[in-house]
Amino acid sequence: xxxxxxSAAPADRAATAAPAPSPPAGVTPSMAxxxxxxxxxxxxxxxxxxxxxxxxxxxDAVAAAQALGIVLxxxxxxxxxxxPMCGVPIHRADEYLQRLIRQGFRVxxxxxxxxxxxxxxxxxxxxxxxxVVRLVTxxxxxxxSLLDAKARNYLTALFDAPKPAAGSxxxxxxxxxxxxxxxxxxxxxxxxxxxxxxxxxxxxxxxAADRMLADEAVRKWLGIAGTAATPVPAASFDxxxxxxxxxxxxxxxxxxxxxxxxxxxxxxxGALLKYVELTQxxxxxxxRPPRRSGSADRLVIDAPTRASLELLRALSxxxxxSLLAAIDRTVTGPGARELAARLASPLRAPDAIAARLDAVGxxxxxxxxxxxxxxxxxxxxDIARAISRLALQRGGPRDLAAVRDGLATARASAHLxxxxxxxxxxxDGLSRIAECLTAAGAGLxxxxxxxxxxxxxxxxxxGGFVRAGFRTDLDEARGLxxxxxxxxxxxxxxxxxxxxxxxxxxxxxxxxxxxVEVPAAAAKPLLSEPLADTxxxxxxxxxxxxxxxxxxxxxxxxxxxxxxRALGLEQEVFAELAAAIAGEEAALGExxxxxxxxxxxxxLGExxxxxxxxxxxxxxGLTFDIRSGRHPVVEQALKAANAQTFIDNDCVLAAAGPQxxxxxxxxxxxxxxxxxxxxxxGKSTFLRQNALITVLAQMGSFVxxxxxxxxxxxxxxxxxxxxxxxxxxxxxxxxxxxxxAAILNQAxxxxxxxxxxxxxxxxxxxxxxxxxxxxxxxxxVNKCRALFATHYHELTALAGRLLxxxxxxxxxxxxxxxxxxxxxxxxxxADRSYGIQVAKLAGLPKPVTARAAEVLALLEKADxxxxxxxxxxxxxxxxxxxxxxxxxxxxxPSPAEAALSAINPDELSPKAALEALYRLKELARKDRS
Length: 929
Ligand code: ADP
Ligand code: MG
Known about the structure:
27 strands; 33 helices
């Protein structure tokens, strides 16, 4: 299966990957046990614990061996056939799990529930008790090794609530839980906004009823977001069960404190929590109070806009090249997740945005505070993930230590903030953070610090994590255990003395326990009286003989008992510490969130200081006034490449400030700017930078500009025409029109619309007419603020006809017949397209560009005469006039010329242009020869 595709439905997988035969009569007890467990988990690969391996059998083994590239072997026979088998060692299980999950498999982990020794007590044939302890699916991961530290991993339940009344708009309820942190959000969106919401959440896994997953748009965007889709029975969307489960989870009798939930939301919550129960086998996850999400207080950004603006991922699908990568200066995983969450859902309320900007502003200004805070946070562990693992009984000693160290970081950070508060006073946002940082666990931190060694081991099983001096009984048991070891060494010395055998050693193995070993040649005295009284023969090996003695047995008993007792006491301490942490789960959750916010805000402060960003002004008006704006990603890329510096540009839409900037003298106040200019001038860059500045401003970040005044935007749309959208399976032009339709149907007076070369995907005059009508509609009906880049010069005439449309262009200079891009936006329309100069830059042979210049001159003349008529370029008597240049006149159009005249540079994609150049070069070469 290709990565990124929604994974196959479990039902499919059950059919293809893992049917195991049902237990017929006469199978061995252990085979019967396996078949029973497998039958209960038909849709998963079964990781079956056997000693130090997880083993897979039958079809599971075949599928896993292929997916992991490991050896497929055989183990025994079932009903006369070899049983295919493969296995992965326990200590590398996470790595293999990760690879299987990435490939769309689900894995059931089956553990031994008792010590094999226990089973043996029930009889030599007794089978070790085993059962599945957890289902591993893409949306329920908790291990750091399976997760990206910088990305959230949501499990999202989708539910299309029945319409309250016929004709009312369809809504979808969503409930999302990051099981690895307990982050939980619930909301409803209009059905039309679902794709945008899916891309915003980018869940690891979505669960929904079959009907919903069959929806083409849903499948498409799940695929693009790289989300696995798991169908669940429609019956699990039960709002009453949802309400009950949620109350139980949050430990409340009434949900009122968390706001009102719709029936649809409760149904989605019901399916979500049921699925968590199913996959975690009833273990209780850590759940933070649900946050409301929804479109009312957020800047709504639809799915194509998210993709086209490359907010969290570049078009390549990678983080590199995205806006997120350009602005991320956080120093912790939780901080990076918080930043990504803010970027994915910018706000709409000016107050809430201002509160964030206050915090960022202080941290941008106060360099000492910022550096101290960032320095302190750098070592902060991921507390939220540690707490979640502990809650799911999957945590280890390092998770306890993470809470201890996190509490210390929180305390240190709170000190820094308190000191700053004394000097400059803190904005509300930072005061609230400071409170959360100190609200939890003063006692807990002290307990953890005194209980745990500085650097605890990874595994809980082997002990060694409790600090000496924490518990006297543990110290005693350990003393006894370790003393006994010393006693053993003394015993060895004594035996060497008593027997005179220098090579005598006291050794240990799992079968004999402690024993005395002497070389075979020296064994004789021990086998005869009087030493044989003490030394009882156990084993004769090739070169050595082994004995035990009554003292050895006695001391061994003491060692084993003491070691077991010490281990038992450590497990007790672990359980107590885990319980103490669980007792403060809510406050610790707040504290973890506060650390993440602080890191995010300090990172944005760092960004602002480093890149010279300014604080934007946001209000309820409809202004859009950016002075000297820059593109946050391109600017940094140019800097990194030591290329030219980025040229800043103004953008003043709608009710402008006191006056228009220099260079825009003739531009009157207008809501829509038509941007014309040759290819490569910087039109797309200009459009996108203004959209990105809006996103940054409303998420509460400073922005790359000299000043920015933005009347709050409710919906942001961005479309790039003629983008190569073939991968998404629809013809380019169709996609362009579908997406343009969405804008015209949804944009309001408060929206900001960026249209880049819309109408390119069809024939010239079709495209021109559509672009024309779109601008008129935006102007007359939507009345939104918009930037419209176009290569259709004809559109510039609209500025004369529509009051709120103004022309701007991007400056270019000609210099010795070459074109120089100034990348500077100014008032007015582009005088022409400079296609021939661009072709020259691209290395088109001189005769071709020279001839093209002549043809252009003819066309322009003819066009002048034909204005207002129906004359198409194709109808012009292109080759009627005799060329008068030094280019040898061909009898008719040469093949190269004919090919050239058939090209419309404005309609070429870069790839097609390159191909055309090769073709023309080849034709030109043939012409000459
Ligand atoms: P267009 O859409 O007009 O064809 P683009 O926006 O794609 O042009 O820009 C072409 C190239 O010019 C970009 O790759 C970018 O590196 C450069 N560029 C664009 N705008 C600027 C600017 N303001 N300052 C510096 N370089 C720019
Ligand atoms: Mg462009």
